[in-house]
Amino acid sequence: MAEVRKLVSVDDMTKQWWESLYTCCRDIIARPGVYADSCRGKILVTMFYEPSTRTNFSFQAAAQRLGAGVFGFSDPIGTSVSKGETLADTIRMVASYSDTIVIRSPQEGSATAAAMYSDVPVINAGDGSHFHPTQTLTDLTTIAQQRGDISDFRIGLCGDLKNGRTVHSLVEALAMFPGISFTLISPSELRLPGYLVEGMTAHGQEYTETRSLADCISELDILYMTRVQRERFADAAEYRRLKNVYILTMKTLDSAKPDLMIMHPLPRYGEISPDVDNDHRAKYFEQARYGMFIRMALLLEFMHLPRQAPPPVECRPPSAVCGNPACVTQSDTYLPQLLAKNSTNICGYCDKPISALTL
Ligand code: CP
User: Fold this and answer.
1) 158 pLDDT higher than 90
2) Residue whose CA is closest, atom 4 of ligand 1?
3) Ligand 1 pocket test: which of 135, 227, 229 has the largest number of ligand atoms within 8 Å of its C-beta?
4) Pocket of ligand 1 (CB under 6 A)
5) 278-289: string of b/e by CB count within 10 Å (b at 16+)?
6) pLDDT tens for each residue of 318-334
7) CA proximity to 244, closest of 260, 227, 258, 259
8) Which atom of ligand 1 lies closest to the CA of 291?
């Protein structure tokens, strides 16, 4: 099996790697005591440029349950980032002190950029609206634990499919598994980005699109609710107009299957009514707990990898900047140009078209 040395996108995963990780995760769940000292002497760094409850704390809990030490920040204001230190230099420093780095940033492609300067594994804990691969590991674990395997179901992805990074990673990861079809439930303003829809077509993933949750809920085996991502809206009025577009209530569930699984990466902000929490189909709190166990499996693997210096990073003309205002290349203008795999016009950091790139 090819060695996986970073997890910045689903492209870093293979099905074989996932199966090995999940096998380890199941053993950790069954026999947690066996792993209590398995990362003794190792150090995890958590770099959170954006708020987090589940991802930050579950990584910290995971590391501590393995016996590792943890340091990091939940706001870069207390670090030399506030003096203008670049991402590249910050990563070089923390990599030299640690065994694995977890990074969350509002900038798309930040984890990809970080991995280019790190000689220890880098884990993407969410880069803007782009990807959140360890939430996907959490989601896959939840589905596997609850259903026995990951195959042959219809999943409804509901809410802010445009900005919801957990949806983006999950759609890509589910291409590895057979018999899965999708119902994409969103208003037209919050549709899944075109590059992901094109990817679904390329992978032969069957999907339908609708605005109405009520119209399709009876067909679903899994309902994956998401929050409308206020922090990604440039226009506050547009956010207010869309924020309550879906509210899942017990009444909505009247026509749902008795064995529907209701998932949500959390946090929620009104889109699942609290009375749903007591329904046996609500799995989102269990989902969050599975996240800690699969992150333990991931850290167990990554923290024992030997340090490996990355290839030297080329300097490139400063004019080559992607047009996506949220792309990491907008702020970190020293980054080299990167194209997405098999592409001549897609930015390799943020996966957006580079029509605005000045070459
Ligand atoms: N699911 C998730 O990423 O939650 P946090 O933002 O609290 O980490």
Assistant:
1) yes
2) 54
3) 135
4) 52-55, 126, 132, 135, 265-267
5) eeebbbbeebbe
6) 555 788 999 999 999 99
7) 227
8) 1
